[in-house]
Amino acid sequence: IVTSVFVDKALRMAQPDLESLALEQTMQDIQDASEMISLFKTNAFIEEGQTVSKEAFKQLTEQDKFRYCLQVRGITINDAELFFDMLCTLSDGDEPDIDTLVGALLRMKGNA
Length: 112
Prior knowledge:
Largest sheet: 2 strands, parallel
Distance between the termini: 51 Å
């Protein structure tokens, strides 16, 4: 009995606390955002602060590397044009800027 109590307490103490888990998630989000922005820069020739056209986004979603990046985060884009139109409602203009687009992608899970 003493051994099981000891093992139980040791296992509870070995688990990360909520603050550590939140910090890890934030760091992962920053890394993922950086990777997505890099994909936009290299594959769609869009710089930070610029807006993303529907055509550029559609072309990017057809590239395997971008799809894999989203898939790792649990995101599947079935209809790129519909998804883009929904994102346009979040931005002030006709086209979302790259930061709005990447932020929306990082907050999503599931099918889009």
